[in-house]
User: Fold this.
Amino acid sequence: ASAQAVSASTESLSSEGNRERSEQELWKMRNRIQVLGQITPQEMQQISNAQEAVNLVMMWILLEITNISITSKILTEPPILSRVYQELSNGMLAYFRAMQIECVPFPFPFAQVVN
Assistant:
């Protein structure tokens, strides 16, 4: 089914109107994330050009939560709101710890002994 989706997406690249849509579909297939709503062309460009896409999305989330809180669109008690920020921070901390483990090279001599 995914091969059909890819071929359908590449065929629709021929028309200018479908170009943005197929780029979004290809981006979703490559990154396999669920997006609520639509990705705007500006957001797609920012994510595509970002070196740290996770930080960019986290910034968007924090800005949106802060904006909603300041404008009183959602009335939330301060302890609950601070817990939201705390859990987002804990998630980013876990992400950076995982990245730290992933980025540290495995010692070459040890890898040779194991293999």
